[in-house]
């Protein structure tokens, strides 16, 4: 099957490349919106605490459980107020930093460590692979929340420790997926062809095997993002995660849970923020998978015509 | 209206895909009578299978669409028949067998159960189905039919699986049997047996046989009439003999000319020190010995062909030689140095002199790398060959050397056809400036005319660059035109070796004789003579099928 897709530019100037990427992003409208939303969240995480932390922690008893969509108490109360009368909008913006830091940190750590171990387990000898896999089994057989409780009980609860604990519990997922894929891909012809050419092991692993696995890992990572946010909230709920007055979206959800019948907005807005972030990441990773795959890329290069 | 058993009239089928609408079949008409064999001959993409799929209601709609035409079975139009009626006909009146029997058997049921299912699905009682299945297994020549009933598909060899498939298709004594490339995945000797079985069964039951194939030899062996297809149209029709001897359409002429095995045999007069010497190389997997003490010499610029059936150890030999598999014993002297004694680091350096072209270029090219990256990777690994500044020019030069265009450098493997991909794989091998290229069934996955082009390319490169080749193939005619020396392998052992002329004109071993006799010649007259020779050979020493 010969698809007469446009020949990619041989000219690799950065500006031109950026333009190509933007055009491909524009071709998938959902991914484009997702990217915009993530940019906003990122900006909030970066600038929010500096600009709004005072407003977010100011107790205002007149605004206790203030309903959303009223501007009586100022724009910060657009989404309502919490049980202590703190403006929800401001709190969500401020909480973005901790939330994204914990989730992104934990996901990135577990992905990097898990993938590396998975590549070793899949490509190195049998014995090394066995040792790594049994380690993964040990981690998996231990209830992850219990592990987190024990570790955080011993260590002081802090953002750094929280990231480490959450990362450790999620490592086996990447490890097992990577190993399984490596075992399959290493037998493929193009890997054999690379060996015939005399390619070194690092080259085979990173140039030929890893790029094939990355899309799968990215998809898992985006799904894991939501899981980690919620795991962090349960730890915070137990008092061993993020400590008030520090806030995260997960903590806001669990704090709002007791008011669900009287003031739904306390848990709803931070919950919505979690959902939208995860959804955006998912859409974007979906787009990335298409954009990175030469066989599929034409769908985006054609300019987003529905096929 | 005529009273043919099956008649396809003016059939057109379109497929709607993202790349646009494809006319898979365009106004095709043919017919099939009781007791005759019609062959539809064509290369991949010619639409030869599409009309058969339309008969069996196997075209998915969408994306497929039957835009016009009729398919008359005993005068009844199948395309307007209800789904109910068509199920009655499928399997019962018209049966079909496929190229790869392993993927068409369900691995978790016994073959007996699966053969019986065809019968019970059409309303036969269980006891009757069982006795009929036994009878069928016996009929198609499966040893110990009773025990075979309770075995699973993976426990049979490829040829036996094709026989089982035929048994399944024959269960309800169909009026028509459609065979879609029934022997393409089989060894030559097994292919001959399966075709003989089909013919024998046809004579007994008087069914019509529709044979879809790309192989002129298969046509010559079995077909009464032939229809040649190209690009969704019928370009030529007639009796097999007529079409072979008096082709009218240029495409048919091209196909016939492309069939290998008619050129001059090479007489090599190479002497001197061997480039590569194998001494008693062996390889075993656990208790199974795949390779038993193989020894041979190869001189620079020489072409050595290794032929044999599947499981004879010819691919194992190549892989062991290149250290893709670790050898169990023996030595391989490359310019006097033992390859098997080298450390991985030393081996990596030697590798640029020994390259390999694999069977399936779709799998041997990394789908995520552009042609430029694929070819220039050679220089990333062996940076001493070429400075980076010259990569671009050299890639373009290599591309033109293998018959591709400069603008192809920026494309990805999926944008090429099978033959073009194999050219890319060859260009990649050439980038390392090797002294030896091992071709593991490098042309057997390609269409005949593409195969001829790639063989021409390899011959040209051999003349220009003086590269030595080890050419592994199961297709003897290809070897005949190309090789200097031939090695015949069986069950991991070299049973005969010699110059191409000796092997083809005066084979000593019965196994070699049988291999040669089983090959199919595109000329129906030659093939008829060859069949008699084969049957005579068979009478003298009956062939046992490997268990």
From TrEMBL, chain A:
SUPFAM superfamilies xrefs: MetI-like
Main location: membrane
Residue stretches spanning the membrane: 100-123, 135-156, 204-230, 263-284
The keyword Membrane is annotated on this UniProt entry: yes
UniProt KW keywords: Cell membrane, Membrane, Transmembrane, Transmembrane helix, Transport
Domain of life: Bacteria
Chain ranges of the ABC transmembrane type-1 domain: 96-285
CDD domains xref list: TM_PBP2
Annotated membrane topology: Multi-pass membrane protein
PROSITE patterns: ABC_TM1
Matching InterPro entries: BP-dependent_transpt_permease (IPR050366), MetI-like (IPR000515), MetI-like_sf (IPR035906)
Subcellular location: Cell membrane
Family statement: Belongs to the binding-protein-dependent transport system permease family.
Name of the protein in its database record: ABC transporter permease
